[in-house]
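Note to self: keep these together.
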Amino acid sequence: MSITREFLRHPMLTGAIAPSSPRLAETMTAGLGLERAANVAELGPGTGVFTEAILALLRPEARLTAVEINPRFAGELRSRFPQVDVVTGSAECFALEGVDVVVSGLPWTAMTANRQERILDALTAALAPNGRFTTFAYAHAAWTPPARRFAASLRSRFAVVERTPVVWGNLSPAFVYRAALPVAVGRIPHGQPAAATA
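Structure:
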């Protein structure tokens, strides 16, 4: 299935005009401890580029749940990855518990502030206390108000946030956010500041 065709047909349900590159998928899934994870979730898997990279690292007994709003993509994911629990719906309805890692391909800068907040609230609530979260952003949009708002929201919800160098081999060039230790529900001592690195 063509992601470009789906973008043109349903631009509100498809965040990218081209699939993410294998190099971006490698960067997205590195350093998350996926090899040791028991419960992993993917938000906005699209055509499954990140899904494939996640599965390559997971143990056979690990559980992967993918939440995809586009029914065409969801159907194709079910056929291609029968071992994945594919849920058709919005990431705002994300309702898992004790998730070790959340990998997101969602188009954060295309969302309203309220939707960004609702999804971030849902995923941080789903994460285990030592959980990790990764997502990407396009380099050309990093200066825009929605992108800055998203970065600030990440830093308010995680004790550690880092940003990788730009992956130039992607269309469009992108960088990856890696966040760890959700603090939205008071999981660090009161008064202890959240650390962030750019």
